[in-house]
Design goal:
The protein is of the alpha+beta class. Helix content is about 20%, strand content about 45%.
């Protein structure tokens, strides 16, 4: 019985800790604002018993196609053994982002339909299939005890349970496995996707489970999609699909357990693991398989499964890579950490240009030199690294933000004149990708909002259209190039597969060069009456040469972990390219005369083929039905109450308060509403609160109401003592009721350009406050510039009366300006950056004049002495016209360790941040530590009030660590600040803690 009591205590303790993370971390992560479409968008919907698709009216034909896909997905008997409930799918077709997401708080899936320059399945198919699997996963968990909790807490609890118990690698890995087994290709048949993990495990070994799951600043770690694909797929090869169906069922039914997901895996592995390790396959991989099995065994079944999977895969991959010769030259570069060089391109002068990015480098074009790369220019955000070069000019495609709408940006062409060092961007109504040079002019792929693709050629000024050829149906042109003989060579991707095609730029005649194939092919380039392209026929990225029509030709070059981006040298005698290693893509070169001619021997993808047989997909993804559609009225769908319970999430302030609240977020994410009784900042005893934000127009509107007890109202008195004729200063603190209402209008402008994030936000805020029911709590006497408790024998105690109720109507005006460089993964702060805010507040109504306040504050980021070091300078100044009251509060920061009080305040803060340790170490399952940083600081503050005019200093250091707790995916920065401040001449210590709710 003693052991049972101990187990019960540990269970209760662990559940208590996890409950905190359940309510705070995953819940907050799901109350997100991913942006809005332009307010002019007119919406329609298709609604069936299984799903609802909400889409822009111009997307009707594709929406019908999506409906046919979803109907078949719902009809399929999937390997998780559940048919999901009805889900809403929101089509974001106005922008240039290619992505998707699915969530449960609120319950919806969003599809970003701009097709990428990708050669997997047709984009809409791929998108629907992958995101649908997430819907199935969530419904699978929403059963048993979790379903009971759903009625108490709403949709937030399902995502909370998933966030705490189900690893991110499973969610994305399982969805990637599903897209592979239902689609014709999927990432499970993409060497580009598969080789990152393959190279890391083969060349650097198997990382710890913690590092593989939570990442690293020291080394490149493949993301949770790649990790999850191998974990989920390879486990299904050995244990069957039930291993994951059972795990999700146990999580849903028993979320009160400590580790229900891992416990289910352990039960399954106990039944089959011994037989798997005793099989002929496993016995042949290892010299001493029993010792490997023992070393792989951990208390946590997830760690055991991870080690088993990658111990097996490591041996298979080593055998495969040992058979691939390295028959080309490496172009020398100098990088100690993971760095990619994309599309190495030789210029007529002999220089080599490449696009460089990695752990320590945000994207930039560089000249390659043996000792050090020379940066040509940094760029905006690239989703495809293809660029074109001719006549000292670089042209590429980058993302241009819409000034207001997050879902209104476009992929546009940008250029850089190397000779004159000038950058230019060419806005367009359509998305533009994959530029290529055409005899002094520029060609590219253009895709409109309805996903219709064209190849277009503009003159050298990017103003006059010279040529256009349109695709048909769902065709997408991928990575076209010019052959120098009046033809464009391109890959065409559609629901039929992929093929190579030649297009005459004079007549527009399209001539297929090959038949359709399910294998990936891309980057075709023409040289000497032949076409060289990248293909995946050997289950790796290799180069192939096509010389005969309707044939795919011969295999001409291979590398252990794949080749990409073939580029012919100016004199057409050499081929430049990138080859993958565990340290990233490196530039390579080979003479065309040295290329081989090997017969293509198509290979299969072991894991992909196995899970495809298990899934047993029986449908064709064709649009064979027409569904009724009707207008979707934005006004009548403003509210969508999805969660309720003891938390009050605030997406604006990145904060969560506790109380009793209900939350609404409509499906278009234009109206956010939370209401309830909350214990939050400034209201220790709780307050009634309603907060609503509407973002459907260009100016955003926020309304907020709070009412509750306030213990911070104070008043200063100057009282004359009759007997001594002395004047004493008394400060009295009162208990009161505080009611506050605010209305804020913001006008956000996103003017980001190149590698700079830039925005301007003017705002106006009306605020009404009432402080009433005032009663005295305590009083203080100013004695030698220090506040001391009021002596009970002083004669003026009886003179202190409760003040009258206070009513304030305040107008606030402000302007926020921000400009900072995009950061690399290793950067602590931006390399360069500026942020400025200026504001003014006053009380112009009801004839009440409580004075005014003006403030300005700014932050400046400067590069440090070494890479990833950074100087930060902060300055702030605030002036209040009323010298006796503090109605407006401080709008600027005080020096660290001290607080400023008065009507004239200034602050100057200087700090220097540097990383000093990348441990990638863990303490059991409790905490994983990725990076430690130090930030010495020196601050100065000046305050002027009725009693003194003084300057204070503080100095010290902040030490913090980037960590993850309980293997949760959300990064936690935790540390301390210690120093000395001269206001009270004392040491101080503060705790530092922040959570980034991003993955």
């Amino acid at each position: 019985m003693r052991h049972k009591h101990t187990s019960f205590f540990l269970n209760s303790l662990t559940i208590g800790i996890l409950l905190i993370f359940t309510l705070v971390t995953p819940g907050k992560a799901q109350f997100v604002d991913l942006g809005q479409d332009p307010c002019s968008t007119r919406w329609r919907q298709i609604k069936t018993d299984n799903f609802q698709i909400i889409y822009p009216d111009f997307f009707e034909d594709n929406a019908q196609y999506l409906a046919n896909i979803y109907e078949k997905l719902y009809a399929h008997a999937n390997t998780l053994g559940i048919k999901p409930k009805r889900m809403s799918m929101i089509v974001r077709a106005n922008g240039g982002v290619s992505n998707g997401n699915a969530g449960w708080a609120p319950k919806k899936s969003e599809l970003y339909t701009a097709p990428p320059q990708d050669v997997s399945d047709a984009w809409l198919e791929h998108l629907c299939i992958h995101e649908f699997r997430h819907i199935v996963q969530y419904d699978k968990v929403n059963q048993g005890f979790t379903k009971a909790l759903y009625y108490i807490f709403g949709e937030q609890i399902t995502m909370a349970v998933i966030g705490v118990y189900v690893p991110m690698w499973f969610l994305e890995g399982d969805a990637t496995v599903f897209e592979t087994s239902v689609g014709k290709s999927g990432r499970g048949r993409s060497p580009e996707f598969l080789n990152e993990m393959k190279a890391q495990v083969t060349e650097k070994g198997i990382y710890t489970y913690y590092k593989a799951v939570l990442g690293s600043y020291k080394d490149f770690v493949p993301n949770h999609y790649a990790l999850g694909y191998y974990m989920v797929g390879n486990s299904r090869v050995h244990y069957g699909p039930d291993i994951w169906q059972d795990a999700l069922s146990r999580v849903g039914k028993r979320p009160y357990g400590i580790t229900p997901f891992a416990r289910s895996l352990k039960l399954t592995m106990n039944e089959k693991r011994d037989s798997i390790w005793s099989s002929r396959h496993f016995q042949s991989l290892f010299i001493n398989p029993d010792s490997v099995k023992q070393a792989n065994t951990h208390c946590d079944a997830k760690r055991t499964l991870y080690r088993d999977n990658f111990s097996e895969l490591q041996q298979i991959w080593k055998q495969e890579s040992d058979q691939v010769p390295h028959s080309f030259d490496t172009i020398t570069t100098t990088n100690k950490i993971y760095t990619n060089y994309h599309y190495p391109t030789a210029t007529p002068s002999g220089q080599i240009i490449a696009y460089k990015e990695g752990l320590a480098q945000e994207g930039a074009f560089v000249f390659l030199h043996p000792d050090k790369d020379e940066i040509i220019t940094r760029t905006g955000i690239l989703y495809d690294y293809k660029f074109a070069y001719q006549d000292e000019t670089l042209v590429w495609s980058e993302y241009k933000y819409h000034p207001r709408w997050e879902h209104g940006g476009k992929m546009v062409l940008a250029s850089y004149d190397i000779r004159h060092k000038k950058y230019h961007r060419y806005p367009a109504r359509q998305n533009r990708y994959a530029p290529f040079a055409v005899e002094g002019n520029w060609g590219f792929v253009e895709v409109d909002k309805e996903d219709n693709a064209s190849i277009v050629i503009l003159d050298h000024t990017f103003q006059k259209e010279i040529f256009r050829v349109k695709g048909s149906g769902d065709e997408l042109f991928v990575h076209p190039s010019y052959d120098g003989k009046n033809n464009i060579v391109t890959v065409v991707v559609s629901s039929k597969g992929k093929h190579l095609e030649s297009i005459d730029i004079h007549t527009g005649k399209r001539t297929p060069i090959t038949t359709f194939t399910p294998y990936e092919i891309d980057n075709p380039v023409a040289v000497n009456d032949q076409i060289i392209y990248r293909g995946a026929f050997d289950a790796n990225n290799s180069f192939y040469r096509q010389t005969q029509p309707q044939e795919f030709g011969a295999n001409i070059l291979n590398s252990k972990f794949g080749l990409r981006y073939p580029i012919v040298s100016p004199n057409k005698d050499s081929l430049l390219f990138s080859f993958y290693t565990s340290d990233g893509y490196k530039p390579g070169k080979i003479a065309i005369s040295q290329l081989e001619n090997k017969i293509i021997n198509p290979q299969t993808f072991r894991i992909a083929d196995s899970v495809t047989r298990q899934e047993n997909w029986q449908f064709e993804l064709t649009a064979d039905s027409t569904y009724a559609s009707r207008k979707y009225n934005k006004t009548t769908h403003l509210f969508n109450f999805h969660s309720w319970g003891p938390i009050f999430p605030d997406a604006e302030d990145v904060d969560i308060d506790f109380g009793l609240a209900v939350s609404s977020q409509n499906k278009l994410s234009t109206l956010f509403l939370t209401a309830g009784f909350v214990r939050g900042k400034g209201y220790e005893h709780g307050n009634w609160q309603v907060k609503a934000t509407y973002k459907g127009f260009w100016p955003t509107l926020q309304l907020e109401f709070k009412s509750g007890r306030n213990d911070d109202f104070m008043q200063d008195y100057a009282i004359k003592i009759v007997q001594t004729q002395e004047i004493d200063t008394i400060r009295t603190i009162y208990k009161s009721q505080r009611t506050k209402g605010t209305a804020t209008v913001q006008f956000p402008f996103n003017i980001s350009r190149k590698n700079y994030s830039r925005y301007i936000i003017p705002y106006v805020k009306y605020e009404i406050q009432a402080i009433h029911s005032i009663t005295q709590r305590r009083s203080y006497l100013l004695d030698h510039n220090r506040w001391t408790s009021l002596p009970s024998n002083k004669p003026y105690n009886s003179a202190l009366a409760n003040p009258d109720d206070v009513k304030l109507q305040i107008m606030r005006y402000g302007l926020v300006l921000n400009n900072q460089t995009r950061t690399s993964q290793r950067d602590i702060y931006p390399r360069w950056g500026q942020r400025l805010e200026i504001g003014y507040a006053h009380t112009p109504f009801d004839g009440l004049d409580y004075g005014d306040t003006k403030w300005a504050e700014g932050r400046l980021y400067l590069p440090g002495f070494w890479k990833h070091h950074s100087w930060t300078l902060y300055f702030g100044h605030q002036l209040k016209s009323d010298k006796t009251t503090n109605y407006y509060g401080n709008q600027i920061y005080s020096p660290r360790g001290a607080s400023l009080y008065g009507y004239n305040l200034s602050t100057l803060k200087i700090s220097y941040a540097l990383p000093f340790w990348y441990p990638d170490a863990h303490i059991g399952p409790l905490v994983y530590m990725k990076r430690f940083t130090a930030e010495p600081f020196f601050d100065t503050g000046w305050e002027k009030n009725r009693y003194w005019n003084k300057t204070y200093h503080s100095y010290g250091v902040e030490i913090s660590a980037d960590t993850h707790f309980f293997r949760l995916p959300f990064p936690v920065n935790i540390g301390f600040r210690t120093g000395y401040e001269t206001k009270s001449n004392s040491m101080f210590v503060d705790m530092l803690f922040s959570v980034a709710f991003t993955i």
